[in-house]
Amino acid sequence: MMLVTMKMLPLLLITLHLSLTLSVLCEECKLPVGREVDVKKLFKTSWYSGLQTDDFTSSILTCVRFSNFTSTDSGFRVVSTEHGDRYVEFPIHFNIHKNGIYHQSKANDETTAHSEHTRETNGKHNAAISEMEKNFFTGNFVFLTDYKNYFAAFLCPTIIKSDEELRMIWGFFPSSNPTLKQIAAFSNTLYDQEISATFHPSTCSERDWNDLNKQK
C-alpha cells in the first residue's frame, strides 16, 4: 500500500482532476497558439517537470529540470538536467520559426544529447533513445508560460508509431513540489487552449536535488 505524503498530495489531486476532466485523447496532434518566449523573464528560475503525458519520452525521461535560459540570435538556449539511472546535464538550443513554433537545433545538440541520454540510461534503451531524438529534432515545439507558475512544453512529432501518443505535453513548475495554485494555472491554460490530455506525475519530487553534483 502506497503512503501518500503531504508533498505528494498536490500532484496526486491535480493528476486525478486532469484524468477525470481532460481524459479524451486527441485524434490528431494539436498545438496551442504559439508565441515567442521572453527569455529575460525565465533566466533566474529553474523549472522542474511535474506533469507529463504518457508519450514516446515517458519510458526514458521521468524527471527534467530546465535552468539557465539565455537568448540566442535564433531563439534560446537552456540547460537540461535529467534523472534516469543517473543525473546528466547538457545544453539544448531552440530556434524560433513562424507562428511561435520552435525547432530543436540538430546541428548544435545531436551529438551531446545522444551521448548524455545514453549515459543517463546506462546504455539500456538505445533504440528508444534514437526514436525519441528523431522526434525531438524533426517535431514542432510550442512553449507557453506565465513566467511565475508554470512553463509548458508542447511537441507534435512528425515521426511516430501508429500505437503511440501523438503529442508530448510537459508541465514544468518552479519547484519540484509545486503548489496547487501553480498546477491549477497550468491546467487552466490547457482548458483555455482547448487541449485535453491524460497526465501522470514526474519523479522530480522524489529526487534529492541537493545531492546532484555527487551523482553526475
Describe the structure in brief.
Helices cover 27% and strands 27% of the residues. By secondary structure, the protein is an alpha+beta fold.
What would you note in describing this structure?
With 216 residues, the chain is of the alpha+beta class. The chain has a single domain (32-211), classed as Calycin beta-barrel core domain (Lipocalin, Beta Barrel). Helices cover 27% and strands 27% of the residues. The protein is built from 5 helices and 9 strands. It has helices at 9-21, 106-120, 126-138, 180-192, 212-215; strands at residues 47-53, 64-71, 75-83, 87-96, 102-104, 140-145, 151-156, 168-173, 199-201. Strands 1, 2, 3, 4, 5, 6, 7, 8 and 9 form a 9-stranded antiparallel sheet that branches. A hairpin with a 3-residue loop joins strand 2 (64-71) and strand 3. The radius of gyration is 16 Å and the shape is globular. The protein starts with 8 loop residues before the first helix and ends with a helix.
Cα distance spanning the termini: 32 Å
Mean pLDDT: 84
Shape type: globular
CATH topology description:
Lipocalin
Helix % is 25-40%
Just give the CATH class: Mainly Beta
Number of helices: 5
Tell me the Rg in angstroms: 16 Å
What portion of residues belong to β-strands? Answer: 25-35%
Number of strands: 9
Question: What is the structural class?
Answer: alpha+beta
What is the subunit organization of this protein? single chain
